Amino acid sequence: MNSTTATAPIPATAEAGPVHPLWMRISHWLNALAVVILVTSGWRIYDAAPFFPFTIPTVVTLGGWLGGALQWHFAAMWLLVANGLFYLFMNIATGRLATKFFPLTPAGVWRDALAALKGRLSHADPRHYNSVQKLAYLFVMLDLIVIVLSGLVLWKSVQFPVLRELMGGYESARRVHFFGMAAIVAFVVVHLVMVALVPRTLLTMIRGGKPEAR
Fold first, then answer.
1. Which of 4, 6, 27, 61 could form a disulfide with 44 if both were Cys (CB 3.0 to 4.6 A apart)?
2. What pLDDT does 17 receive?
Protein backbone atom coordinates (compact mmCIF):
# COMPACT_ATOMS: atom_id res chain seq x y z
CA MET A 1 0.00 0.00 0.00
CA ASN A 2 1.49 3.28 -1.09
CA SER A 3 0.50 5.99 1.39
CA THR A 4 1.88 8.80 -0.77
CA THR A 5 -0.29 8.23 -3.82
CA ALA A 6 -2.12 11.33 -5.06
CA THR A 7 -0.20 13.53 -2.66
CA ALA A 8 -0.93 17.20 -3.12
CA PRO A 9 1.81 19.83 -2.88
CA ILE A 10 2.03 21.96 0.24
CA PRO A 11 0.59 25.43 -0.32
CA ALA A 12 3.13 28.20 -0.62
CA THR A 13 1.27 30.04 2.11
CA ALA A 14 1.92 27.31 4.69
CA GLU A 15 1.90 28.57 8.25
CA ALA A 16 5.17 29.74 9.76
CA GLY A 17 6.75 28.08 12.76
CA PRO A 18 7.13 24.42 13.72
CA VAL A 19 4.64 21.78 12.69
CA HIS A 20 4.11 20.92 16.35
CA PRO A 21 4.87 23.53 19.05
CA LEU A 22 7.20 22.55 21.90
CA TRP A 23 4.43 22.35 24.49
CA MET A 24 2.50 19.94 22.29
CA ARG A 25 5.52 17.66 21.68
CA ILE A 26 6.40 17.50 25.38
CA SER A 27 2.78 16.79 26.29
CA HIS A 28 2.53 14.11 23.60
CA TRP A 29 5.55 12.18 24.88
CA LEU A 30 4.50 12.51 28.53
CA ASN A 31 1.07 11.15 27.60
CA ALA A 32 2.72 8.29 25.71
CA LEU A 33 4.84 7.45 28.77
CA ALA A 34 1.83 7.60 31.08
CA VAL A 35 -0.27 5.38 28.80
CA VAL A 36 2.47 2.74 28.50
CA ILE A 37 2.84 2.57 32.29
CA LEU A 38 -0.91 2.56 32.87
CA VAL A 39 -1.57 -0.18 30.33
CA THR A 40 1.22 -2.53 31.42
CA SER A 41 0.57 -2.05 35.14
CA GLY A 42 -3.17 -2.29 34.48
CA TRP A 43 -2.67 -5.67 32.84
CA ARG A 44 -0.91 -6.88 35.99
CA ILE A 45 -3.79 -5.59 38.14
CA TYR A 46 -6.28 -7.34 35.86
CA ASP A 47 -4.37 -10.62 36.20
CA ALA A 48 -4.85 -10.48 39.98
CA ALA A 49 -8.63 -10.80 39.51
CA PRO A 50 -9.47 -11.54 35.84
CA PHE A 51 -13.11 -11.38 34.76
CA PHE A 52 -12.51 -13.00 31.37
CA PRO A 53 -11.23 -16.57 30.80
CA PHE A 54 -7.71 -15.36 30.02
CA THR A 55 -4.84 -13.49 31.63
CA ILE A 56 -2.15 -11.21 30.22
CA PRO A 57 1.35 -12.76 29.87
CA THR A 58 3.45 -11.59 32.82
CA VAL A 59 6.34 -10.64 30.56
CA VAL A 60 4.39 -7.66 29.16
CA THR A 61 3.07 -6.46 32.53
CA LEU A 62 4.63 -3.98 34.96
CA GLY A 63 4.89 -4.11 38.73
CA GLY A 64 5.87 -7.70 39.43
CA TRP A 65 3.01 -8.17 41.89
CA LEU A 66 -0.33 -6.53 42.65
CA GLY A 67 1.04 -3.98 45.14
CA GLY A 68 3.86 -2.93 42.82
CA ALA A 69 1.50 -2.66 39.87
CA LEU A 70 -0.89 -0.46 41.86
CA GLN A 71 1.96 1.89 42.80
CA TRP A 72 3.02 2.26 39.16
CA HIS A 73 -0.61 2.68 38.12
CA PHE A 74 -1.37 5.47 40.60
CA ALA A 75 1.86 7.30 39.78
CA ALA A 76 1.11 7.24 36.06
CA MET A 77 -2.51 8.19 36.72
CA TRP A 78 -1.46 11.52 38.23
CA LEU A 79 0.89 12.14 35.32
CA LEU A 80 -1.87 11.42 32.80
CA VAL A 81 -4.42 13.63 34.58
CA ALA A 82 -2.07 16.60 35.09
CA ASN A 83 -0.59 16.39 31.62
CA GLY A 84 -3.97 15.73 30.03
CA LEU A 85 -5.46 18.83 31.64
CA PHE A 86 -2.48 20.88 30.47
CA TYR A 87 -2.83 19.49 26.93
CA LEU A 88 -6.56 20.24 26.83
CA PHE A 89 -6.09 23.74 28.26
CA MET A 90 -3.36 24.61 25.75
CA ASN A 91 -5.39 23.26 22.83
CA ILE A 92 -8.35 25.44 23.83
CA ALA A 93 -6.30 28.53 24.77
CA THR A 94 -4.27 28.53 21.54
CA GLY A 95 -7.30 27.79 19.34
CA ARG A 96 -5.66 24.55 18.22
CA LEU A 97 -8.68 22.45 19.22
CA ALA A 98 -10.98 24.37 16.90
CA THR A 99 -8.56 24.70 13.98
CA LYS A 100 -6.98 21.22 14.05
CA PHE A 101 -9.97 19.01 14.82
CA PHE A 102 -12.91 20.86 13.31
CA PRO A 103 -14.89 20.95 11.13
CA LEU A 104 -15.52 17.21 11.16
CA THR A 105 -18.32 15.61 9.15
CA PRO A 106 -19.41 11.99 8.53
CA ALA A 107 -18.99 12.58 4.79
CA GLY A 108 -15.43 13.76 5.30
CA VAL A 109 -14.58 10.75 7.47
CA TRP A 110 -16.07 8.36 4.90
CA ARG A 111 -14.21 10.04 2.03
CA ASP A 112 -10.84 9.99 3.79
CA ALA A 113 -11.32 6.45 5.08
CA LEU A 114 -11.93 5.20 1.54
CA ALA A 115 -8.91 7.15 0.30
CA ALA A 116 -6.76 5.61 3.05
CA LEU A 117 -7.88 2.08 2.15
CA LYS A 118 -6.95 2.76 -1.48
CA GLY A 119 -3.58 4.26 -0.53
CA ARG A 120 -4.56 7.65 -1.90
CA LEU A 121 -4.80 9.69 1.26
CA SER A 122 -2.51 12.72 1.15
CA HIS A 123 0.18 13.13 3.82
CA ALA A 124 1.78 16.16 2.16
CA ASP A 125 1.25 18.63 4.97
CA PRO A 126 1.60 17.29 8.54
CA ARG A 127 0.19 20.58 9.85
CA HIS A 128 -3.30 19.56 8.80
CA TYR A 129 -5.16 16.45 9.95
CA ASN A 130 -7.44 14.56 7.60
CA SER A 131 -10.92 13.64 8.81
CA VAL A 132 -9.91 10.14 9.93
CA GLN A 133 -7.10 11.57 12.06
CA LYS A 134 -9.43 14.17 13.56
CA LEU A 135 -11.95 11.50 14.51
CA ALA A 136 -9.26 9.21 15.94
CA TYR A 137 -7.64 11.91 18.08
CA LEU A 138 -10.98 13.21 19.37
CA PHE A 139 -11.97 9.63 20.20
CA VAL A 140 -8.75 9.16 22.17
CA MET A 141 -9.40 12.34 24.15
CA LEU A 142 -12.91 11.16 25.05
CA ASP A 143 -11.71 7.62 25.74
CA LEU A 144 -9.05 8.87 28.16
CA ILE A 145 -11.73 10.86 30.01
CA VAL A 146 -13.83 7.68 30.33
CA ILE A 147 -10.78 5.77 31.55
CA VAL A 148 -10.05 8.39 34.21
CA LEU A 149 -13.69 8.52 35.39
CA SER A 150 -14.02 4.73 35.55
CA GLY A 151 -10.65 4.61 37.29
CA LEU A 152 -11.98 6.96 39.98
CA VAL A 153 -14.80 4.49 40.63
CA LEU A 154 -12.33 1.64 40.99
CA TRP A 155 -10.05 3.69 43.24
CA LYS A 156 -12.60 5.49 45.44
CA SER A 157 -15.89 3.71 44.84
CA VAL A 158 -17.51 4.85 48.10
CA GLN A 159 -16.49 8.49 47.57
CA PHE A 160 -18.03 8.62 44.06
CA PRO A 161 -21.41 6.88 44.41
CA VAL A 162 -23.14 8.84 41.63
CA LEU A 163 -20.30 8.15 39.21
CA ARG A 164 -20.34 4.49 40.25
CA GLU A 165 -24.04 4.21 39.51
CA LEU A 166 -23.62 5.96 36.16
CA MET A 167 -21.04 3.31 35.30
CA GLY A 168 -23.52 0.58 36.22
CA GLY A 169 -21.80 -0.41 39.46
CA TYR A 170 -18.27 -1.35 40.48
CA GLU A 171 -17.97 -4.50 38.37
CA SER A 172 -19.37 -2.72 35.33
CA ALA A 173 -16.84 0.09 35.87
CA ARG A 174 -14.06 -2.53 35.80
CA ARG A 175 -15.18 -3.62 32.36
CA VAL A 176 -15.57 -0.04 31.14
CA HIS A 177 -12.03 0.63 32.33
CA PHE A 178 -10.73 -2.53 30.65
CA PHE A 179 -12.38 -1.86 27.30
CA GLY A 180 -11.31 1.79 27.42
CA MET A 181 -7.74 0.58 27.87
CA ALA A 182 -8.16 -1.92 25.03
CA ALA A 183 -9.33 0.90 22.74
CA ILE A 184 -6.22 2.92 23.60
CA VAL A 185 -4.01 -0.09 22.84
CA ALA A 186 -5.75 -0.54 19.48
CA PHE A 187 -5.23 3.14 18.69
CA VAL A 188 -1.53 2.92 19.58
CA VAL A 189 -1.07 -0.11 17.31
CA VAL A 190 -2.72 1.65 14.36
CA HIS A 191 -0.81 4.85 15.18
CA LEU A 192 2.53 3.01 15.10
CA VAL A 193 1.64 1.39 11.78
CA MET A 194 0.87 4.79 10.28
CA VAL A 195 4.12 6.21 11.65
CA ALA A 196 5.97 3.32 10.00
CA LEU A 197 4.24 4.15 6.68
CA VAL A 198 4.95 7.90 7.01
CA PRO A 199 8.11 8.08 9.19
CA ARG A 200 8.58 11.84 8.79
CA THR A 201 5.62 12.31 11.15
CA LEU A 202 7.82 10.89 13.90
CA LEU A 203 10.58 13.37 13.10
CA THR A 204 8.18 16.31 13.30
CA MET A 205 6.93 15.08 16.67
CA ILE A 206 10.54 14.94 17.93
CA ARG A 207 12.04 18.05 16.34
CA GLY A 208 9.00 20.19 15.63
CA GLY A 209 10.19 20.67 12.03
CA LYS A 210 8.53 22.31 9.08
CA PRO A 211 6.72 20.46 6.29
CA GLU A 212 8.86 19.89 3.25
CA ALA A 213 7.54 20.38 -0.26
CA ARG A 214 7.37 17.27 -2.42
1. 61
2. 66
Q: Which domains does the chain have, with CATH numbers?
A: 22-207 (1.20.950.20)
Q: pLDDT value at position 193?
A: 87
Residue 163 CA to residue 74 CA, distance in Å, equals 19
How far apart are the C-alpha atoms of 118 and 71, rounded to whole Å? 45
The whole model's pTM is what? 0.83
> What pLDDT, on a 0 to 100 scale, did the predictor assign at position 203?
83
Q: Is the Cβ–Cβ distance between 173 and 167 less than 8 Å?
A: yes
Distance CA 32, CA 30 (A): 5
All residue ranges of the chain with pLDDT < 50 are 1-14, 211-214
Task: Transcribe the chain into DSSP letters.
Answer: --TTTTPPPPPTTPPSS-SS-HHHHHHHHHHHHHHHHHHHHHHHHHHHS-SSS----GGG-SSSSHHHHHHHHHHHHHHHHHHHHHHHHHHHHTTHHHHHH-S--HHHHHHHHHHHHTT----S-TTS--HHHHHHHHHHHHHHHHHHHHHHHHHSTTT-HHHHHHTTSHHHHHHHHHHHHHHHHHHHHHHHHHHHHSTHHHHHHHH---PPP-
